Amino acid sequence: MKWKKLTVGPVQENTYIIYNNLNEAVVIDPGSEGKRIIQTIESLKVKPLAILLTHAHFDHIGAVDDVRERYNIPLYIHKKEADWLSDTKKNGSKYFGQSITAKPATHILTNTDNTLKIGNFSFEVLTTPGHSPGSVSYYLKSSGAVFSGDALFAGSIGRTDLHGGDQDVLINSIHEKLLHLPEETMVLSGHGPETTIGMEMDSNPFLSGF
Predict the structure, then answer these.
(1) What is the per-residue pLDDT across 74-133, written as a single tens digit (0 to 9) for each?
(2) Is the model's pTM score more than 0.90?
(3) What are the CA-CA distances from residue 64 to residues 9, 50, 143, 162 (Å)?
(4) To 10 degrees, what angle do helices 34-44 and 64-71 make?
(5) Rounded Cα gap, residues 91 and 29, in angstroms
């Protein structure tokens, strides 16, 4: 598996295009700049099969409809944030002077951690709430990578002062779900640079004591 990271929009959100040697692709969190995301997909000569959302804050959903309509592919989101796609208060765009929405998702994820198979991809869906109630992380065990959304960053964790945020819940999610992954696991976050589970266990100031 390979991935391409595009940093998009005014808050520098990371959109990921994951693809394999069969030229299948999955897009995670197309947050903004839909035209640029589509141009990158075309340049990679891959076929998108689905869009996966780690959560539904406005900076992660702004280009959902552009990509979905271009390729006629399904959208996956956790059930606790399904209605956030159309609610500018819950997705936060209203408070940043914007009105960002997306059409309803086609597939709803539940609270239970499970395996999601899309084409030749097999993701372990880890429920990691705290930054938002329906945050999830997508773990590709075969590739040693986890797409953590805004749960865990290099040297930091997600903010919890937005709708439904809870820092205690977030710390518990990271401890119970992400820090149990192998230390060499690459962490591909919703903002900022890549890191590893081991590096965050050793040096992340928010996770001291774990």
Answers:
(1) 999 999 999 999 999 999 999 989 999 999 999 999 988 899 999 999 999 999 999 999
(2) yes
(3) 13, 11, 25, 21
(4) 40
(5) 13
Closest residue by Cα to residue 207 from 164, 170, 160, 166: 170
Q: What is the pLDDT of residue 209?
A: 60
Closest alpha carbon to 150 in 18, 20, 29:
29
Q: Which residues contact 21 (CB under 8 A, 6 or more apart)?
A: none
CATH number of the domain enclosing 100: 3.60.15.10
- Which are the contacts of 208, defined by CB distance < 8 A and separation ≥ 6? none
Strand, helix or coil at 144?
coil
Alpha helices by DSSP H, listed for 1-57, are: 34-44
Provide the number of structural domains found in the chain: 1
CA dist 120 and 40 (Å) reads 21
Which residues neighbour 154 within 8 Å (Cβ) at sequence distance 6 or greater?
187, 189, 192, 193, 194, 195, 199, 200
Residue 136 structural domain: 2-207
DSSP per-residue string spanning 93-151 = GGGGT-----PPPSEEE-SS-EEEEETTEEEEEEE--SSSTT-EEEEEGGGTEEEEETS
* CB-CB contact of 121 with 17 (8 Å): no
For 16-51, the pLDDT digits (tens) are 999 999 999 999 999 999 999 999 999 999 999 999
